[in-house]
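Morning run. Coffee first, then this:
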Amino acid sequence: MKAIERPLDLLNASKNRTVMLSLEDGRNFTGTLLAFDIHINIVLDNTAEIIDGEQSTKLGITFFRGDSIIFVSPSK
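And here it is:
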């Protein structure tokens, strides 16, 4: 992975890779990062909701509004 100098560098380095999102309402999602913008609005593909550590609902391509996201965690 390239050197991370700015916060958006991490998202850029994570494009087309699996990430996990945690939302303000406590829900967690995992999927392939397709796109993002400076407001951290994020589009995931192959999105799945994670409940109790297990994949639950599969959603496909999903848009997440940046102001509802608590954190984004890239996979290794």
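The first strand starts at residue 18 and ends at 23. Good start to the day.
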